C-alpha cells in the first residue's frame, strides 16, 4: 500500500518522495522509498538507526548483590534490556527536566528483588522479574489491553518502561542465576536517549538497504569465475524494476530513485513507528538547517555566525543540537559538569552506570 502523509497530497508521480509498505509485522517492516535521491534515502536510514528517542536503563543502584556477577557486569546487562517506548514523546530528556536528580517526568524506575533461600538448584532471574514503580516506590498500573496512546501501533506495547518480552516462554532476557543463599536487590533508573549517545537506545537491530537490483547503473562490480548471472542470483526486489534489454545503451548520468529498505526493530516500538519517527526527525533536522541558513539573528548577521540558529552554539564552540554543552547532557564535558560537577554517566555513591566501569572522583561508576 502507498503511504503519503508527508507529501503535498498530490498523486502525481513526480510530486515528491513516496513510501510503499510491502510487508509489516510486530518487529519488521519492508518498504520501498521512491521518487527521491540516494542521499536522502541514506539520510533516512541513518536517522532511523541513531536519532529516534527510546528508553533504556541508564543508572543502576545496587542495594545487595551476592551473585557471582560483578556490579558493573549486572549494570551493563540491565542497560541492554529493551524497554517499552510507549508514549516516549511525553517523557522529558533528563537535561531538559527541572528536577534536581530524576523524577517521574524524565525517568522510569524498575526494581528487582530476588533471593534463593532454600533451593539447591540455580534460580534464574529474567527481565520479567523487573517491576515498574514510581519515584516514591508506588507500583505503576499497566495500560488496559488495546488502549491506544501516541504513535501508530502503540496499543500493542506494554506500559512505558516495562521490559519487552517476545520469547515463547514469556520470560525475557536472562539477567543472572542465583545459587542457594544468594541475593540480588537493585533499582534501575531508565532515561530517554538516542543511539548517537549509546547503542542501547537504538530502536532497530538492523536495516537492510538495496537499490538498482539489476545493477544497470554499474555501481557494483560483481566478481565472478565463469558466469555472473548464475553466480549472482537476483533478489526479490528485481521484480519491482524493468530488467535491462540486450544491447541497451549505458546511461552514465542516470541516478537511482527507488530504494528497498527492510527494517528490523528491537520491539521497543512498532517498526512502522520507527519509520514515521525517522521521517519526522529528518524533517525537523532539515528545517533547522534551512532556518539557520535563511534567517538572521538578533545582531543582524546570518545564523551560525552569532545569530539565533539552533546550531549557532555548535559553530561557535557552545552547546550542541542536543542541548547544553555535550551530546550527553550538561556540564563542561561528557564526564563532568564544571568544577565539582557530577559525571553524566555516574550517580550517587554506590550507584553504577549501565555502561559499567570504575569509580570516578564524582562518586559514581562509569565506563
TrEMBL record:
CDD domains (UniProt xref): RNAP_II_RPB3 (cd07031)
PROSITE patterns per record: RNA_POL_D_30KD (PS00446)
Gene3D superfamilies: DNA-directed RNA polymerase, insert domain, RNA polymerase, RBP11-like subunit
Recorded family membership: Belongs to the archaeal Rpo3/eukaryotic RPB3 RNA polymerase subunit family.
Subunit description: Component of the RNA polymerase II (Pol II) complex consisting of 12 subunits.
Name the record gives this protein: DNA-directed RNA polymerase II subunit RPB3
Major site of localization recorded for this protein: nucleus
GO molecular function annotation: DNA binding; DNA-directed RNA polymerase activity; protein dimerization activity
UniProt GO cellular component terms: RNA polymerase II, core complex
All copies of domain DNA-directed RNA polymerase RpoA/D/Rpb3-type, residue ranges: 28-292
Keyword Glycosyltransferase: no
Subcellular compartments: Nucleus
GO biological process, one term: transcription by RNA polymerase II
Pfam families linked: RNA_pol_A_bac, RNA_pol_L
Protein keywords: DNA-directed RNA polymerase, Nucleus, Transcription
Region (Disordered): 137-156
